[in-house]
C-alpha cells in the first residue's frame, strides 16, 4: 500500500473510498447512501443502521472473542489492577443499560457522565450508546460551575457520577460537586446515579439519587438498539472563544467507520493488539482512543488511573507498556516533558522490556523537537506527532504508519490523513505558497467522523467554522506546508490555549477575572511553560474605588478562576498593572503582551494608543529592558 495513492483516492473518490470502509463494520442495516448533502454540511451513510455498543462488545463475542481482554484497568492511585473480558464488559454494560432503561432513559435522551478514570465510566458511555441515549462526558477536573454550564446546555435526563476521584493522593469529591452544580443550574436532572468507590467520601443522599450498585443489581442485560447512522452518539463540550463551551455533536455511523479505519491505517493496530491512550475519558482522546476506537477494532485498551509522574514515579508509563505488551501508545508531549524532568537520562526506561512497543504517538499540543528527540533516543521507536481536535474526533494530520511509514520530520505532524483535503490559506482565502504561514483549513466535504453540528447552536457552528473561508472548514490553527507536503502547525490563531494538553479559553478566564469587583479591566493570554507547554497569565487594572491590598486581590482572583473553571485551568500567574496596551480603537493588544511575557522579539504596532506603556509592562513582567 502506498500513502499517496490511498490519499488521492480518498479525496477524488470519497464515495468509493468510504464504501470500502463501511464493509469493515457489522451494520444492522448496511448503508446504500455513502455521502449526502445537507443544508449546511454532509451526512455519512444516512440510510445505515448500527449500534456502537454492539460493535464494541457483542460483535466480538459473536465472533468467538468473549474471553479476550477488552480493558486492562490499572490504577496506581488505588493499587488496583483488573482484566475485563468482552464477556465481562457485556455483562456490566448490558445491565447498566437495563438500569437506565428502567429509569426511563430513552433513545435521544441526554445523560451527563462525570466520572474519574474507572471502568464504570466506560460502562456508562457504552450503556448510553446501547440504548441510543446521547452521553456527554464532563472532565472530572472541571469545577461545579463548568458542570452547571453543561447541564444547562445539554439538559440531561440524568447524571452518572462516582463518590470521588483521586488525584495522586488527594480525594476529589465528585458527588458533592454534582450536587453543587445542580444547585447552580436552572435545569434539574431527574436522577443522579452514584458509583460509591467506598473511600470514605461522605455525601448527601436526596430523593433523586440512586446507588449504581443497587440499580444494576436489579436489572438485566438488554440488547443493543439499532440507531440511524446520523443518530448522535455523544456531545462533547470544548472551549470556544467565548465564555460558554461548545457542544460538539458526533454522529454514530461516520464516527464508527472513521475510528475503525484510523486504528488500522493510522495507528497500525491489528485486531487483538494492545493500545494505550494515556488520556482521560473526559477528553476527545479518551472517547476515541481509550473507548470507542480500540474496542471497535477488537484491541485491548488500557484505562490508566494515574499520572506520568508521582504515581509513584516517572517509571509508571514504561511499567504499563511492558506489563500489558502495549504495541502503540498515545500521550501528550507535556507528559513526556514531566517524565524527562524527573528522569533526564531515561534510566527508568532501561529497567523495562519495551520490545512490544512499535510506535509512540503524541498529540494534544505541538511537540517540541527536543522532547521528540528525547523519546526517539530512549524508546528507539518512531515517534509520531499527529494533529487533530475535539471537532474532528480523529486525526487530521499524521504519518499513517498502517499504510506506509514516511520519514519523520521533527516539528511536523506529517501529512494530511486520508479524507482530509487540508489547505493553508492566507487572509484573503487564497491558497498560501509553500512555507508561507497561514490559516489551516479543510476543503469541504469533510470525511466521516467530523462533528455534525454544535448542540442547540447551529448558528455558532456556522460562524465558528464555516464563514471565515467559504467552502472550507476553518480549524482555528495556523501553520504552513513545506515542499514535501509536510504540514507544520504553529498554534491557535484565536483565544484558545493549550495547558498541559488541556484546551482552555482565555476569553472565559477574562470573563471570570472581570467579574471580581476590584477589577476594572483585564487581559488573559497564554505564555510559555517548560512542562505544560503553555500556561495562562493574567494582567489586571484595578478600579479606582477599591480599598483592598494587591496581594489579597491577586489571591482572590486566582481562587475565583480555580473555583469557577477548576484546578485544571492552572491559573496561577496574575499581575496588577496600571494600564493595558491598546489600539486607538480600544482593543487590548494581547498578542503583544504574550510576546513581551515570552521575551520574544516584537514590533510595536502603529495602531497602539500610547507607546510608553510597553516599558511599564516589561518592568512589571520583570523582563530586562
Ligand atoms: N480531577 C480533579 N482535578 C484534576 C484532574 C481531575 N481529573 N486533572 C487535573 N486536576 C488538577 C490537578 O490535580 C492540578 O491541581 P493543583 O493545581 O491543585 O495541583 C490541576 O488540576 C492542574 O493539573 P495538570 O494540568 O494535569 O497539572 P499537574 O501539575 O497535576 O500535572 C502533568 C502535570 C504534565 C503531569 C499532567 O498535566 C499530565 O499528565 N498531562 C497530560 C495530559 C493529557 O494526557 N492530556 C490529554 C490530551 S491528549
Ligand atoms: P482539543 O480539541 O482539546 O483536542 O485541542 C485541539 C487543539 O490542540 C488543536 O486545534 C491544536 O491547536 C492543538 N493540537 C492538537 N494536536 C496538536 C499537534 N500535534 N501539534 C500542534 N498542535 C496540536
Specify the number of helices: 19
The CATH architecture category of the largest domain equals 3-Layer(aba) Sandwich
Supply the number of structural domains: 2
Overall geometry comes to globular
Report Rg. Answer: 24 Å
- What fraction, in percent, of the residue positions are helical? 25-40%
N-to-C span: 57 Å
Please list the strands of the largest sheet in the order they lie side by side.
5-4-17-16-18-19-20
Bound small-molecule species: coenzyme A, adenosine monophosphate
Beta-strand proportion: 15-25%
The parts where pLDDT drops under 50 for at least 5 residues are: none
Major sheet description: 7 strands, mixed
CATH fold name of the largest domain, please? Rossmann fold
Structural class: alpha/beta
Residue-averaged pLDDT: 95
| CATH class (first level) name of the largest domain | Alpha Beta
Secondary structure: number of strands: 32
How would you sum up this structure, described in words?
The protein has 625 residues and is of the alpha/beta class. It folds into two domains: 3-306 and 386-415, Rossmann fold (3-Layer(aba) Sandwich), CATH 3.40.50.12780; 500-620, ANL, C-terminal domain (GMP Synthetase, Chain A, domain 3), CATH 3.30.300. Helix content is 32%, strand content 24%. The protein has 19 helices and 32 strands. A seven-stranded mixed beta sheet has the order 5-4-17-16-18-19-20, sandwiched between helices. A hairpin with a 4-residue loop joins strand 4 (69-75) and strand 5 (80-85). Bound molecules: coenzyme A and adenosine monophosphate. Residues 238, 284, 363-366, 385-387, 389-390, 413, 475-477, 489, 492, 498, 503 line the site of adenosine monophosphate.
Amino acid at each position: 500500500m502506498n500513502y499517496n495513492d490511498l490519499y488521492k483516492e480518498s479525496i477524488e473518490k470519497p464515495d468509493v473510498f468510504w464504501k470500502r470502509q463501511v464493509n469493515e463494520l457489522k451494520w444492522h442495516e448496511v448503508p446504500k447512501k455513502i455521502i449526502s448533502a445537507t443544508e449546511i454540511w454532509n451526512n455519512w451513510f444516512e440510510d445505515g443502521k448500527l449500534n456502537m455498543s454492539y460493535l464494541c462488545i457483542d460483535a466480538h463475542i459473536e465472533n468467538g472473542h468473549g474471553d479476550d481482554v477488552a480493558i486492562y484497568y490499572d490504577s496506581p492511585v488505588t493499587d488496583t489492577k483488573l482484566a475485563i473480558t468482552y464477556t465481562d464488559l457485556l455483562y456490566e454494560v448490558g445491565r447498566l443499560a437495563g438500569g437506565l432503561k428502567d429509569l426511563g432513559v430513552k433513545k435521544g435522551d441526554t445523560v451527563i457522565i462525570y466520572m474519574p478514570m474507572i471502568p464504570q465510566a466506560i460502562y456508562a458511555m457504552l450503556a448510553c450508546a446501547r440504548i441510543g441515549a446521547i452521553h456527554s462526558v464532563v472532565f472530572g477536573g472541571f469545577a461545579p460551575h463548568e458542570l452547571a454550564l453543561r447541564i444547562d446546555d445539554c439538559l440531561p435526563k440524568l447524571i452518572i457520577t462516582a463518590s470521588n476521584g483521586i488525584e495522586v493522593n488527594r480525594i476529589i469529591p465528585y458527588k458533592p460537586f454534582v450536587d453543587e452544580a445542580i444547585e447552580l443550574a436552572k435545569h434539574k436532572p431527574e436522577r443522579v446515579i452514584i458509583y460509591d468507590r467506598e473511600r470514605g467520601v461522605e455525601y448527601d443522599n436526596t430523593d433523586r439519587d440512586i446507588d449504581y450498585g443497587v440499580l444494576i443489581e436489579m436489572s438485566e442485560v438488554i440488547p443493543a438498539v439499532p440507531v440511524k447512522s446520523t443518530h448522535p452518539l455523544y456531545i462533547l463540550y470544548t472551549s470556544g472563544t467565548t465564555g460558554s463551551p461548545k457542544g460538539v455533536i458526533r454522529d454514530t455511523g461516520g464516527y464508527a467507520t472513521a475510528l475503525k479505519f484510523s486504528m488500522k491505517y493510522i495507528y497500525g493496530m491489528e485486531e487483538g493488539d494492545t493500545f494505550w491512550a494515556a488520556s482521560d475519558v473526559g477528553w476527545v482522546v479518551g472517547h476515541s482512543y481509550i473507548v470507542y476506537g480500540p474496542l471497535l477494532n477488537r484491541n485491548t485498551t488500557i484505562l490508566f488511573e494515574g499520572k506520568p509522574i508521582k504515581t509513584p514515579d516517572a517509571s509508571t508509563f514504561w511499567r504499563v507498556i511492558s506489563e500489558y505488551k502495549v504495541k502503540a501508545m498515545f500521550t501528550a508531549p507535556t507528559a513526556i516533558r514531566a517524565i524527562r524532568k524527573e528522569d533526564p537520562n531515561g534510566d527508568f526506561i532501561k529497567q523495562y522490556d519495551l520490545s512490544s512497543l512499535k510506535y509512540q504517538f503524541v498529540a494534544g499540543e505541538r511537540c517540541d523537537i527536543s522532547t521528540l528527540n528525547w523519546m526517539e533516543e530512549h524508546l528507539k521507536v518512531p515517534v509520531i506527532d499527529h494533529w487533530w481536535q475535539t471537532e474532528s474526533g480523529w486525526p487530521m494530520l499524521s504519518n499513517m504508519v498502517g499504510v506506509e511509514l514516511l520519514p519523520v520530520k521533527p516539528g511536523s505532524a506529517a501529512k494530511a490523513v486520508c479524507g482530509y483535503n487540508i489547505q493553508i490559506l492566507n487572509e484573503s482565502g487564497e491558497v498560501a505558497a509553500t512555507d508561507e504561514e497561514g490559516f489551516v483549513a479543510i476543503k469541504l466535504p469533510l470525511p466521516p467522523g467530523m462533528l455534525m453540528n454544535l448542540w442547540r447552536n447551529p448558528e455558532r457552528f456556522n460562524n465558528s467554522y464555516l464563514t471565515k473561508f467559504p467552502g472550507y472548514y476553518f480549524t482555528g490553527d495556523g501553520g504552513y506546508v513545506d515542499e514535501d507536503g509536510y504540514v507544520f502547525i504553529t498554534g491557535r490563531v484565536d483565544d484558545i490555549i493549550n495547558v498541559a494538553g488541556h484546551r482552555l479559553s482565555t476569553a472565559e478566564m477574562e470573563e471570570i477575572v472581570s467579574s471580581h469587583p476590584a477589577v476594572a479591566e483585564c487581559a488573559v493570554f497564554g505564555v510559555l511553560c517548560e512542562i505544560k507547554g503553555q500556561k495562562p497569565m493574567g494582567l489586571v487594572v484595578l478600579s479606582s474605588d477599591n480599598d483592598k491590598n494587591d496581594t489579597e486581590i491577586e489571591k482572590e482572583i486566582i481562587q475565583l478562576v480555580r473555583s469557577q473553571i477548576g484546578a485544571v485551568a492552572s491559573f496561577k500567574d496574575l499581575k496588577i498593572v496600571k494600564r493595558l496596551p491598546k489600539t486607538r480603537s480600544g482593543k487590548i493588544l494581547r498578542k503583544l503582551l504574550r510576546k513581551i511575557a515570552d521575551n520574544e522579539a516584537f514590533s510595536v504596532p502603529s495602531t497602539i494608543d500610547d507607546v510608553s506603556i510597553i516599558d511599564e509592562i516589561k518592568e512589571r513582567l520583570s523582563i530586562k529592558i
